[in-house]
Design brief:
Blueprint (H helix, E strand, L loop, with lengths): L4 H68 L23 H4 L30 H5 L13 E8 L5 E8 L6 E9 L4 E9 L2 E10 L14 E6 L2 E9 L2 E6 L8 H24 L6 E10 L9 E6 L5 E6 L5 E7 L1 E12 L2 E11 L5 E3 L3 E3 L7 E10 L11 E6 L8 E6 L5 E7 L1 E8 L6 E7 L5 E6 L8 E6 L7 E7 L5 E3 L11 E5 L7 E7 H6 L13 E6 L2 E7 L8 E8 L2 E9 L6 H4 L2
Parallel strand pairs: 9-15, 9-16, 17-23
Antiparallel strand pairs: 1-2, 2-3, 3-4, 4-5, 5-6, 6-7, 7-8, 9-12, 10-11, 10-13, 13-14, 17-20, 18-19, 18-21, 21-22, 24-27, 24-29, 25-26, 25-28, 28-31, 29-30, 31-32
Length: 605
């Protein structure tokens, strides 16, 4: 078939374009086929790679699962269980030298020496000490009453002083209780620390004006701290008869302020408890003797020499001199094996001794009876009258009793200078020069009376009260004073405040004694107080009535007179803690107070 030239050109052009299109289509198809092949190959390769990775990952996971399973058999549980309560062993020992100022010996509780242990909210307190040694249900048989006991003092920061009473269990040699009486000025802060094998277990704390026995289970205890593994696991605060309790187990539920306070109390008490534990038992125990020296005209004797001599061998264990007020004080080492004599001497004056001074372990201060010294060149004698009555019946004179006079105060065995007898009225008159004497008065059915006699120009008499024979396991205490009328009161308070014993006779002084009887004393601990009842009830708490009364306390058992105490001179105040009975041993205390609680204990007869 033939066509003309223009059509042919158009035909060829169209054919060429058609061929190009065909080639393009074929190219696209070929490229697509190749691309599909590559993609298929890649897919197959990638799938193989992931298959291998999954296989290796599965193998790794399987290995890890086996390891975890092996561990789970030993330690891992599905849900956490409470940790086992185990008591940690921590070293709490530091030398006293590390805990006190090297120059002053001052103790500073604000310096952190010991820190709390690691907290465990599952810990519970264990009553391992308190109930065992205190036995609050039967305090008379509490083991702590028979513990070895010492009383020492120390200086704290900010010019404060503190007293420690250390109780050591004689069976295991461990200190299991320390009572701290911190003097904060007018008020006392008292803490009882209880230790279990050297670890703090429990602390009680309260404030008071007068250190006296209290009920350890009562709301009088303001704060109670319970410890385990050096952690404060429980804290109880009492105020106005209501108690609020905080526990470590609930600490996550408390406000930040409460938690901060809880943390502070834990840190403060842990630190303080172990400082006390390391320092208090190491302090050397001494007894402070103090008193006044005057001449026969009641003038203070300055620069009089005071020697403290052992009555065993006459050696001088301490000496000092009086100041411008005639006052002296001197410390001696405590011992259970000796008695001492305080001897005052000065030119132109007769030497005077005060005998029978004890310094037993656990003693407080010893107030020595005022020493009256007569002049050597004064030979004037004064007709000194003696009046002696029955201590339990002031209307009954001690008629027919024998009397022996010795020089010195409480001189029971020295040379007798005069003898005589009391008449039917229980009186006698003896001529004596100025000075200090002891009258020994004896009569069947009565314990021997040793009566202090002061003779001077304005004082020429002595009134005494003889104690009827005392039964075994009994203490009888006679309290007498010269000032009249003066309403003093006396009482004995047992540990845990279980017994409060008062006199059945209310004396106004001079002619009558108050007598307190502790029967069935056993091993209980008793503390004896004399109070100025009249000044307390009138509100005159800085009164000098009692300190100037010449009050004397005589303590008797079936063995006779075992203790004689004289009211401290020149002390303003209304409460005098005279002595303490511990494990049937008499210990002088002589603490004087001018503040009292609003407590019926002091304000009722």
């Amino acid at each position: 078939m033939f066509i003309n030239g223009d059509k042919e050109k158009q035909y060829r052009k169209d054919k060429k374009n058609k061929d190009r299109f065909t080639v393009t289509i074929i190219g696209v198809l070929v490229y697509s086929a190749a691309l599909i092949a590559v993609m298929v190959g890649s897919y197959i390769g990638v799938k193989a790679i992931f298959r291998n990775h999954d296989k290796k990952l599965a193998e790794i996971n399987a290995e890890q699962t086996e390891e975890v399973a092996e561990e789970a058999e030993v330690t891992v549980t599905p849900t956490p269980e409470p940790e086992i309560e185990e008591d940690e062993i921590t070293d709490h020992e530091m030398s006293p030298e590390e805990l006190t100022d090297s120059e002053t010996g001052v103790i500073d509780y604000s310096i952190t020496r010991f820190k709390p242990g690691k907290r465990n909210k599952n810990l519970k307190w264990k009553d391992t000490v308190f109930s065992r040694i205190e036995n609050v249900n039967d305090s008379a048989s509490a083991p702590v009453n028979t513990f070895d006991y010492k009383r020492v003092t120390a200086n704290l920061k900010d010019n404060k002083t503190t007293e420690y009473k250390v109780y050591t269990n004689p069976q295991n040699g461990f200190v299991e209780k320390i009572t701290e009486v911190e003097n904060c000025g007018e008020i006392l802060n008292i803490l009882d620390y209880y230790y279990d094998n050297g670890n703090i277990n429990y602390i009680s704390e309260y404030k008071t004006y007068v250190d006296k026995p209290i009920n350890l289970s009562s709301s009088d205890i303001e704060s109670r701290f319970y410890f385990r593994n050096d952690c404060l696991v429980r804290y109880i605060y009492c105020k106005d008869g209501s108690a609020t309790e905080y526990a470590l187990a609930d600490i996550d539920n408390y406000s930040k302020g409460t938690v901060d306070q809880y943390d502070y109390l834990e840190e403060d008490m842990i630190n303080r408890a172990y400082i006390v534990y390391n320092v208090a038992p190491s302090i050397k125990e001494t007894e402070l003797l103090y008193g006044y020296v005057m001449d026969e005209f009641s003038m203070p004797m300055e620069d009089a020499k005071i020697e403290i001599r052992s009555e065993n061998d006459e050696r001088v264990v301490a000496d000092t001199r009086t100041d411008g007020d005639g006052f002296y004080k001197v410390s001696i080492d405590c011992t259970d094996d000796e008695t001492f004599c305080a001897v005052a001497s000065k030119d132109t004056l007769n030497e005077v001794g005060v005998f029978g001074i004890t310094a037993k372990f656990g003693s407080g201060k010893y107030s020595v009876e005022p020493i009256i010294m007569g002049y050597t060149n004064n030979t004037t004698t004064y007709p000194t009258q003696f009046v002696v009555r029955d201590a339990t019946d002031p209307n009954k004179p001690l008629s027919g009793a024998g009397i022996m006079i010795r020089r010195g105060i409480n001189n029971r065995t020295g040379e007798v200078m005069q003898t005589g007898a009391l008449d039917d009225n229980g009186t006698a008159t003896v001529a004596l020069t100025s000075g200090s004497y002891t009258a020994e008065i004896t009569k069947g059915g009565y314990e021997t009376l040793f009566l202090s006699v002061i003779v001077r120009l304005d004082h020429q008499y002595a009134v005494g009260f003889a104690m009827p024979d005392v039964d075994s396991d009994t203490f009888r205490i006679a309290v007498s004073w010269e000032s009249a009328p003066l309403d003093l009161n006396s009482m004995a308070i047992s540990s845990n405040r279980a017994r409060i014993l008062k006199s059945s006779v209310d004396s106004l002084g001079l002619t009558t004694a108050e007598c307190v009887t502790i029967d069935n004393a056993g091993e209980d601990d008793y503390r004896f107080f004399v109070t100025d009842f009249g000044s307390i009830t009138s509100g005159d708490l800085m009164s000098y009535n009692m300190t100037g009364s010449g009050a004397c306390v005589d303590v008797y058992t079936s063995e006779g007179l075992i203790g004689k105490y004289h009211v401290p001179v020149a002390n303003a105040g209304v409460i005098w803690e005279t002595f303490e009975i511990r494990n049937k041993t008499l210990l002088p205390v002589n603490s004087y107070y001018y503040s009292v609680e609003d407590d019926d204990l002091w304000k009722t007869k």
